[in-house]
Specification:
heterodimer; A: 301 residues; MetI-like fold; B: 416 residues; alpha/beta; D-Maltodextrin-Binding Protein, domain 2; 2 domains; 10-stranded mixed β-sheet; disordered N terminus
Chain lengths: 301, 416
């Protein structure tokens, strides 16, 4: 400590700078730098190799005119909504169930968290087999006599993206459960005693007293899951391959296909920028609102 | 269980890689060539070994870089070429895929060999032209893949046919009978690249080589709006009624297994299907038939070539030139094709010792009457646009033929 005391003001500034410098350098050069580079490429006619032939917004026009992009984008929204809602609901329900002090909690906790340890490729393949009309659950149930039974989502255009949602929820619920369970364990036990004294039923205590205090855990879960929504790629590749046709395609797969297989890095870059702008369009107002709220709170104090 | 399955798959892959890599260890003083390719399945790895052995026998040292999956392999190789640390040799499908690399001066030519062997007269122009620029040849063509409509002879016998139908009416008539017999008419590979091939085959069957070329080579939108193209689209759409519910996403070899087991009547894909049939001990003519699409005067072809990126340091070009000599050795092409099921790229190779399908295929493409697969004549980006649309059309019964034709014409106009 005494080492830095002598040089008061400078030390106060240089230490944080020294500590944060590398990460700022990474943010500036690696993140912002590549974003700018990607944007630049998206304005060119580059194929396999980046070139300096600027074509204005032609790639964006091509992108917006592409029905495959439209499908992919819509699928991302559908997947996002159902995946978030599903994983939060199932994860919270599991956490509440475990919080009731079931016997062998550690075993169940491990079982529920286990899917998270699997690669999305494995999850995708397992669910593809389960839902295969010739091998999976449908064939088994029909074999037992219910011949009208049908469960072939990845093979059905209208349902394929929900097959991805189902597998995604199965995989991600465990993490939500662990986060929520940690939150539940942090709740003051006195609240429970008070609720019991007042004769409030268990589910009402959860719904109106306990869960509203888990805002932080909920926000963490939402952020973790949202990142998964934007990134979703391997699950789709393994489960439906984006099919039937392009029915369950997602933006990440569109980008990967054009970036590598199709050697059109300009169009892939345009798609990446479009995706980034979408994410910003959601998160910037969200952040702004949060900052406003914070300022209002501090002002009131 | 999946994990176990994956573990086996990985072990098998590693095994195949090790097998292909072994000859490299035999000689340490030869001309070193790192060979990047994607031939990892059983028959493919065995065929690659033929080249490795021949290369080693002539004083080369084969360093194997096998990647599972074409897209992953091409992406890795292209990144390495652009990054300045390329493999000595890379297997590429014939076509404009490498055009940009050639234009950027990153590839070395094999003009000396082409001249010495007179390859310009011995390799089909559509293959050789696709790897040439400004009169120089930048890749050594190894083999030609043709596409077949494979029929199961036992299934045809079951519906009272002793030879495959030759017209579209007879084709659907036969498929109706197969359906009535409780079997699957078409063993459908439900991935977009496979669906794409079927449509191209139908288009060739209806429009002939000239019509096919006017669409895919000349990018003539009027040809797309013609009644013939429309008929092709309708025939393709009609096939929706002849596949089973498990078709979406199905791999080509799973579809082939349906034909092998007598559960399905026919499959249309590349000659690797035939290779699989041969591997299972089936005989062309008695157990299965390899046919062009009904009405097709020719076959859709594509080719495998080896390309040679420029490198830093000594000896790399000597190794590349030696490799090209090995690839253009008629005996190597013959032995390779015997294992892989393809046709040697050199037309002067005597294929009488290969199977009946190869001989039939070679005769069909001999007159230069071959329809180039899209990747042979257009950029991967354009080919991908067609592929998406064709796959979507098959899988979305709500898409009308009019919409399909119009969207197809738009892609043609965009890339013209």
């Amino acid at each position: 400590m005494t080492l830095f005391k002598t040089d008061g003001a400078r030390a106060r500034w240089s230490m944080p700078l020294l500590a944060l410098g590398p990460s700022w350098a990474i943010v500036l050069f690696c993140y912002l730098g590549t974003v700018i580079l990607t944007f630049r490429i998206s304005l060119t006619s580059s194929g396999m190799i980046p070139n300096g032939d600027y074509v204005g917004l032609a790639q964006y026009r091509k992108l917006l005119g592409s029905s495959r992009w439209e499908t992919s984008f819509g699928n991302m929204l559908t997947f996002g909504a159902f995946f978030l809602a599903g994983a939060l609901l199932v994860g919270t329900a599991l956490a509440v169930a475990l919080d009731r002090g079931v016997r062998g909690e550690a075993v169940f906790r491990t079982i529920f968290l286990y899917p998270q340890a699997l690669s999305f490729i494995v999850t995708g393949l397992v669910w593809q087999w389960l839902m295969n009309p010739a091998l999976g659950i449908q064939a088994a149930v029909q074999g037992w006599g219910w011949t009208g039974f049908s469960f072939d989502w990845p093979y059905d255009r209208g349902m394929a993206i929900y097959a991805v949602v189902l597998a995604g929820v199965w995989q991600a619920s465990g993490v939500v459960m662990v986060l929520m369970l940690a939150g539940l364990r942090g709740i003051d036990r006195d609240i429970w005693r008070a609720a019991r004294v007042d004769g409030i039923s268990t589910w009402r205590t959860y719904a109106f007293l306990v869960l509203p205090q888990l805002g932080g855990m909920l926000a963490t879960s939402v952020v973790l899951l949202s990142v998964g929504v934007i990134k979703v790629y391997d699950l789709v590749v393994a489960l439906t391959g984006g099919g039937p046709g392009t029915a369950s395609d997602v933006p990440a797969k569109f980008i990967m296909d054009y970036l590598f297989g199709r050697q059109n890095i300009a169009l892939a870059s345009a798609a990446s920028i479009a995706l980034l702008v979408t994410v910003l369009a959601v998160f910037v107002p969200f952040h702004y609102a949060a900052a406003l709220r914070r300022r209002a709170r501090e002002g009131a104090r | 269980m999946t994990q176990l399955g994956n573990a086996f798959a990985i072990a098998a892959m590693l095994g195949a890689t090790a097998l292909a890599a072994s000859p490299g260890a035999a000689r340490a003083d030869g001309l070193k060539a790192e060979v990047a390719h994607e031939w990892t399945s059983g028959s493919e790895a065995a065929a690659a070994q033929v080249i490795a052995d021949a290369f080693t026998a002539r004083g080369g040292e084969w360093i194997d870089t096998a990647t599972a999956g074409f897209e992953a392999g091409h992406a890795a190789a292209i990144n390495r070429i652009l990054g300045g640390n390329p493999p000595t040799v890379k297997m590429f499908p014939a076509g404009p895929m490498t055009k940009e690399l050639i234009a950027a001066g990153l590839m070395s030519d094999i003009d000396g060999l082409v001249e010495a062997e007179g390859l310009k007269d011995k390799i089909p122009p559509v293959i050789l032209d696709s790897v040439s620029a400004k009169g120089s040849v930048y890749a050594a063509p190894l083999s030609i893949n043709v596409h077949w409509l494979i029929w199961s002879a036992p299934v045809l016998a079951q519906i009272g046919l002793d030879e495959p139908p030759a017209t579209w009416d007879a084709f659907f008539d036969a498929l109706d009978k197969v359906k009535a017999a409780g079997l699957v008419p078409i063993a459908w590979g439900g991935q977009s690249w496979q669906e794409n091939k079927v449509f191209n085959g139908v288009m060739l069957g209806v429009m002939g080589v000239e019509g096919y070329d006017s669409v895919y080579v000349d990018f003539d939108a009027e040809a797309v709006r013609s009644p013939e193209f429309r008929e092709a689209a309708e025939i393709y759409a009609k096939m929706r009624g002849y596949v089973d519910p498990g078709a979406p996403g199905r791999l080509w070899n799973d579809a082939t297994a349906m034909v092998l087991e007598g559960k399905a009547a026919a499959q249309y894909s590349g000659d690797w299907v035939k290779g699989e049939m041969l591997l299972q001990g089936r005989e062309p003519g008695s157990d299965f038939f390899c046919e062009p699409m009904p009405g097709a005067p020719a076959l859709v072809i594509q080719g495998d070539t080896f390309a040679f990126p420029k490198k830093d340091g000594a000896d790399w070009n000597a190794a590349q030139q030696l490799f090209a000599v090995v690839v253009e050795d008629p005996q190597v092409q013959l032995d390779f094709s015997r294992l892989k099921g393809s046709i040697p790229a050199r037309s002067d190779v005597d294929v009488s010792s290969l199977d009946a399908c190869v001989q039939k295929g070679k005769a069909l493409i001999a007159g230069g009457d071959a329809a180039p697969a899209p990747l042979l004549v257009m950029s991967p980006s354009a080919a991908g646009q067609f592929q998406d649309l064709i796959s979507e059309f098959f899988n979305d019964p709500a898409m009308s033929t009019d919409d399909f034709v119009e969207s197809f014409a738009e892609i043609v106009e965009e890339n013209a």
